[in-house]
């Protein structure tokens, strides 16, 4: 800073606070947009999951009502169990990805139209890719009055393991857990889309803030340099030139005092020094 000229110092002193202000405003704006976006994402997920939960519970209530007459004939009717399995297996919805599944409380598969090869297998210890014991958790919530479980499961239409939300309830007459679920990859797709929109907003905010900040910075620097040039730089250069002329013995140039600030005080001091030197030079000439 010591080696910088006044204009350069004014440029630095003007630019730094403005840059700090622009960065601070940009940081606050980005934080607010991200916070708002995250809240919006949470609300969207909560709303979509809540809607699916309500639909799943309603579906299972309808299924239980549909199989209730069949259960009344069990165990007196030997055909009741087979009829129940056929009825549950025949229920399909949602482009074949929606179906009813059933397991005994011990974990043996009794109905699974989505993966019929599992029927007869015990799945109690089966875990998904996140380590969730899916069937054990579904049996647990079913025996406790019914409930929801999120996990990953094979989706027939795409032949891929995807996130799923299921509702399970108990058929205590049989010692079964029956349930159904929705694949919730569509929720993730909606959330990813919203997240992309939030990221775009952040990017636009950064660019807008930088653009506005750059314009303000240029305007403020231009104004400050113009003011500094008129009130500081030019008067100092004029005083410097007057001092140089005085060093050459030229005492006739008038030194104007146009302000009462430090530069004005300096001009007044140089003016008084000029007058004193004139007196000294006059006496010297008279002696000679």
Automatic annotation (TrEMBL):
This enzyme's EC code(s): 2.7.13.3
The entry's keywords: Cell membrane, Kinase, Membrane, Phosphoprotein, Transferase, Transmembrane, Transmembrane helix
Pfam families linked: HAMP, sCache_2
GO cellular component, one term: plasma membrane
GO molecular function, one term: phosphorelay sensor kinase activity
UniProt xrefs under SMART domains: Cache_2, HAMP
InterPro entries assigned: HAMP_dom, HssS/ArlS-like, sCache_2
Main enzyme class: transferase
CDD domains, per database record: HAMP
Residue stretches spanning the membrane: 206-227
Protein name listed in UniProt: histidine kinase
Organism annotation: Neptunomonas phycophila
Taxon lineage: Bacteria, Pseudomonadati, Pseudomonadota, Gammaproteobacteria, Oceanospirillales
